[in-house]
Amino acid sequence: MMRHTVNEEISLRTIEQKDAEIIFQIIDESRTYLRDWLGWVDGTKTLADSEAFVEGCLGREKDEKSLTAVIVSQEKVVGIAGFNEINHSNKTAYIGYWLGESYQGNGIMTKVARALTDYAFQQLDLNKVEIRVAVENMKSRSIPEKLGFKEEGCIRQAEWLYDHYVDLIVYGMLASEWRE
Questions:
Q1: Which of 90, 105, 123, 134 is buried deepest, with most CB atoms within 10 A?
Q2: Residues 143-162: tens digit of each pLDDT
Q3: 3-state secondary structure of 91
Q4: Residue 28, Ramachandran bin (φ over 0: left; ψ between -120 and 50: alpha; else beta)
Q5: 81 and 100 Cβ atoms separated by less than 8 Å
Q6: CB atoms within 10 A of CB 49
């Protein structure tokens, strides 16, 4: 179980089954906004879909293949972030994140991504963290860029987004670079 303080207002904690209802509510309220870049939104139609998502997250965490956390800002769940995939053999992890529309523009996600990167290197003893972002998603791309991640390349047509493919930019950070 992870509980990680980001700052005095923001924290991360491992997702729990009790979070399914608030997660579904945030998705439902931000559906149009989230749909621009997240291909799973249309598949989240009911509370049962969010409950199944949480159950899957807990199973992957138990197998140490991922770590999904709720973002808590001012004591309220506002989104999700974590490691979509952890590869212990190669000591790598991929950060993924989303935030409800009404919580955007306050620097929350940059702080969360910084905290997750610290956690990956200090607590999980990983060597590399990646963030993959759609080429045209400038808001999301600004996060790894602000944190000093290096742009490593573009994976063409890497993700199906409802009716078209999108290219993903891969940003990477090595533990040795992060310490500097």
A1: 134
A2: 999 999 999 999 999 999 99
A3: coil
A4: alpha
A5: no
A6: 15
